[in-house]
Design a protein that fits this description.
By secondary structure, this protein is of the alpha+beta class. The protein has 3 domains: about 190 residues, Arp2/3 complex 21 kDa subunit ARPC3, CATH 1.10.1760; about 200 residues, no CATH class; about 160 residues, Heat Shock Protein 90 (2-Layer Sandwich). It is about 65% helix and about 10% strand. It contains 16 helices and 7 strands. A 5-stranded mixed β-sheet has the order 2-4-5-7-6. The chain has a two-stranded antiparallel sheet with strand order 1-3. β4 and β5 form a beta hairpin.
Length: about 550
Amino acid sequence: MTPDQPRGAQAWLRILGLQALAALLFGGLSFFSLNFAGEIERHVSPVWPASGLAMALVYAGGRKYWVGIFAGALASNGLTTWLSFPEFPYWQVWVPSLGIAVGAVGEALVAAWFLQHRADGRAFCTSASHATAFVLYVALLSSAISALIGPGALLLAGFFPLDKWGLVALTWFVGDATGILVFGAALVFPWRDVDWESLRHRYLEAILLMIALGLVGCTMTGLYDNGSETSWPRAYMILPVILWAIFRFNHLGTLAALLCVTLLSIGGSAFGHEVFPAERQGYALLFLQLFLLIVSLVAWAVCGRVNELQILTNRLEDLVAARVGAQRDALRQREERLAILAHDLQVPLIGIRNMVTLLMNPRRIGDDPKTSRRLLAEIGEASEQARALAERLLTDQEVEHGGSRPEPVDWVELVVGVARRANLLKDDRYLYYVAQHDQPQIEGSVDRVTILQVLDNLCHNAAKVSPVGGTITLGIRQEDDVVILTVADEGPGFRREEIPTLFSKVGFRNRIRALPESTGLGLFIVGKAIRELGGSIHCEFREGRGALFVIRLPRHAGQE
């Protein structure tokens, strides 16, 4: 014996055990259901949960379970016939039972195939199309197969006359279809997808629903009948309760309601409390099962539509929430942009104001026409800078230094011009602005408005923290195709732990609303502008020697 042979033997034993269990379960349910068979035909019962079990076995375990279903159907029907009609010959007992077993297997295979390929398997109750397919194909069409083969085999064996075949087939069909719609649905129900957390928050309503189902179900079965001869349609009392279950608890409520009503109705009929009384035995249960079949068909169809509408409603709520969130973000971004624009406009406007003040004070500039022309030129450049910033807002461009428009510049002249303009605007602290450069000229391109705003912001911040008579140094040099700009002051500098967040949005939105006098907003603007130009900026830690900002930009910055 090879090592694989024991494994093969164990696999075969496991398969045989599963098939035997399937046959035992199917046969046991069949024997139980045949206890409800009445005068219509001894082999036919309107209660047949075995059809739902057979469908679930084939769907979950595979087509191999047809063997167990066949064996269970053959044994249950053969033994029932033999015990009920001991005088019948052998062939008349087992031949029709063989036909009934073939019908049961065909029904299970077809129902499982339709469940998988038309009703989306366990998601059969999640949409209107899947629920409709479950009702029409899985329950009705597959049950029709067994309802044709089984009664046909009994008719050929002479168990009932031809004129009774329609009633037998209808009873068979009703029992199988109801078994699939109620008991089969419970076995393949998507239990893992149930939102138990939401149900836990609505447990009081769920308890009330179950109490209502129990009370109405008991009323249907005549538990509260006082023996009067007055007849009234008690069965239809269940419809509002089922609608409550569908609309409030979706597919879980639908299944619970159908199971509860079906079990109570069948149990009541078994103990003589009939929902639809009839003179002949078995007909009352048939009428009840017809009613439950119609209710189940409508309930699953409505459930699918309600679930579909619920999904669409959730999607709509998500879309609305996303749109509202986007609008809030847009408003917040606009608030930030307006704050940035106000900050950016502050520097050139202050420069214009100070230079106009100088022009109106001859004692400070003397009668030198060159100084006056230089101040007027600086006023013109600052005005153009302010106009460009306002234009970006009016044309709906990115105020946060987006939409870069490079133009040819001389980097050295640009830095020297910033220092020269700053020296013209000395206040009573007598600050000195020094421009340091190794080369007389560095040709390149950059968005002039953006880079001037960066340097003006850094100089403005440095001036606020520099001591009286201090020096603010602007440096420029070139390394390969990279331009390095530096701004150094003699103020207190920054703590080492502050440096990593100098150019980030930490606490930025709070500063926008309060607009305190701090360097936080300006440094955020500077950092974002430099990144959008394709460069980098950092602040070096120089304990006791002020702050040193180092900017690295491509010589042709802001170009693709």
